[in-house]
Backbone:
């Protein structure tokens, strides 16, 4: 009998070891995992850290913020994140001095974040953050509050949670994490272009009227306690941030459903009082709906702003931050004077460094060899194989010298599915320059630079037999860059050319691509190119 128990114990320990290993290979939410790891595992320093639920991901045009302060920001919020989990992440941050934000910690807050829901989707979304935070008594209390005992194995182990999708998930997780790391993802979702449908607008006809009455309606409402933990949690966050010397700002982003759910006005009033009575820096942006010039077209749904709304909110929020806090701008990285630039070496062609297609990493794109050459160089068909997610091809890091001028040339010919093509030279986020080319008309549709890249330019030169040489040039203030390129569509902005697209075209299935297990029924573009 003793041998049986020994064997059972050994088997159980072996099982736990295997489970621990596979748990590292399967990640619930790759974007949150990547940003959380940047802060807590790699201990990268950020100027602004944002926390909370999906509103934290989709309400702030952080590009404007970082351009204003010459700063670097990151978001460690996740969809539907309950405020108890936000508090657990806050505690982990405040206990780790090395990861304190240099300038400001921004916490998204609303009464809805304190509610427990019984539906499986809500419970499932909480696991995104639970997978990442430290195992502690707070962790155990959260699990006990949110889940039944039968759910515990799924909560504790993503391997058990995704056991039926392991083959797909391990590979897809690796690709997505690589993608977010390669693009220096910062956890914000700022390229949402979706707008409310006419039927959505019709269902909320009184929006502007209710928005103008919102502040007074809150004041006139009967205060309602959120729950017995809310005040304690908020008070602890304020006290701990003060003790640590961390600037803390609470924000309630503008949301249509907040304005319309009058039955929650009492809880909003309670939240306002708790925050202000404890000396918190706080702003409810729903009070400023008209000052922000928000309209129906600034929303992707009733809860979330789209990219147009985000651009309206952040300048207003920056003004508020400057009034509430004394935050100095970071000095700009030094750049060479014009005379230095004129005497600098000739622009270095980055494609001379990347000499083989084998050195290019593909993210939902595919290279297919083509029986066609250009000046004795091999040609490939570059295909975009997903419309649901961003897609591009990228080099690995290329060492550069800050202040020098670099150029990216590609010889390209349009295929039979699409004619727009994007190029990017990218440094440390948000440093980059983007250009989009029309291979049908032979035009440069636009060029845009971000942050510290300067002297940007783009050109397109017609060659024989429909080939074009597309070029993008910039003075680079970075020790390394990557080059990104890929098909795009007319609906995308210049700086977001690699994003998902709504265009639907012919079915092509690439069975030989081992990491794509689903059958794609859309192929957007096909571009012939020379490397």
Residues:
């Amino acid at each position: 009998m003793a041998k049986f128990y020994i064997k059972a114990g050994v088997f159980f320990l072996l099982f736990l070891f295997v489970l621990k290993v596979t748990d590292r290979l399967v990640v619930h939410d790759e974007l949150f995992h990547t940003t959380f790891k940047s802060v807590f595992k790699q201990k990268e320093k950020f100027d602004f850290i944002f926390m909370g639920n999906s509103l934290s991901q989709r309400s702030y045009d952080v590009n404007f913020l970082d351009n204003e302060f010459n700063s670097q920001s990151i978001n460690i919020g996740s969809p539907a994140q309950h405020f108890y989990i936000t508090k657990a992440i806050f505690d982990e941050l405040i206990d780790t001095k090395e990861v304190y934000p240099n300038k400001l910690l921004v916490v998204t807050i609303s009464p809805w974040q304190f509610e427990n829901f019984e539906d499986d989707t809500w419970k499932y979304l909480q696991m995104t953050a639970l997978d990442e935070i430290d195992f502690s008594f707070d962790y155990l209390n959260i699990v006990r509050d949110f889940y039944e005992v039968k759910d515990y194995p799924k909560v504790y182990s993503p391997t058990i949670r995704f056991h039926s999708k392991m083959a797909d998930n391990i590979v897809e997780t690796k690709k997505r994490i690589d993608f977010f790391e390669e693009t220096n993802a910062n956890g914000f979702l700022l390229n949402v272009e979706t707008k409310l449908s006419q039927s959505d607008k019709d269902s909320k006809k009184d929006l502007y009227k209710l928005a103008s009455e919102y502040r007074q309606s809150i004041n006139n409402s009967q205060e309602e306690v959120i729950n017995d933990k809310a005040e304690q949690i908020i008070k602890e966050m304020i006290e701990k941030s003060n003790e640590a010397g961390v600037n803390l700002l609470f924000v309630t982003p503008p949301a249509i459903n907040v304005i319309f759910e009058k039955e929650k006005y009492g809880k909003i009033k309670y939240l306002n009082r708790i925050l202000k009575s404890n000396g918190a820096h706080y702003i409810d942006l729903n009070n400023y709906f008209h000052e922000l010039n928000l309209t129906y077209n600034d929303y992707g749904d009733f809860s979330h702003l789209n990219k147009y709304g985000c651009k309206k909110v952040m300048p207003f929020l920056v003004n508020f931050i400057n009034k509430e806090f004394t935050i100095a701008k970071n000095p700009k990285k030094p750049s060479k004077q014009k005379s230095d630039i004129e005497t600098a070496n000739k622009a270095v062609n980055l494609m001379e460094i990347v000499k083989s297609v084998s050195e290019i990493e593909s993210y939902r794109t595919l290279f297919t060899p083509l029986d066609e050459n250009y000046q004795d160089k091999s040609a490939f068909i570059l295909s975009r194989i997903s419309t649901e997610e961003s897609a591009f091809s990228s080099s690995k890091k290329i060492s550069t010298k800050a202040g020098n001028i670099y150029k990216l040339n590609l010889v390209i010919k349009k295929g039979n599915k699409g004619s727009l093509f994007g190029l990017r030279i990218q440094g440390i986020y948000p440093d980059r320059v983007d250009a989009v080319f029309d291979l049908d008309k032979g035009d440069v549709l636009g060029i845009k630079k971000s942050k510290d890249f300067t002297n940007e330019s783009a050109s397109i030169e017609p060659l024989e037999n429909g080939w074009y040489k597309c070029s993008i040039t910039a003075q680079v203030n970075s020790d390394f860059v990557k080059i990104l390129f890929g098909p795009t569509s007319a609906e995308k902005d210049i700086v977001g050319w690699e994003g998902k697209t709504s265009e639907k075209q012919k079915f092509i299935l690439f069975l030989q691509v081992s990491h794509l297990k689903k059958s794609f029924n859309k192929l957007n573009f096909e571009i012939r190119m020379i490397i």
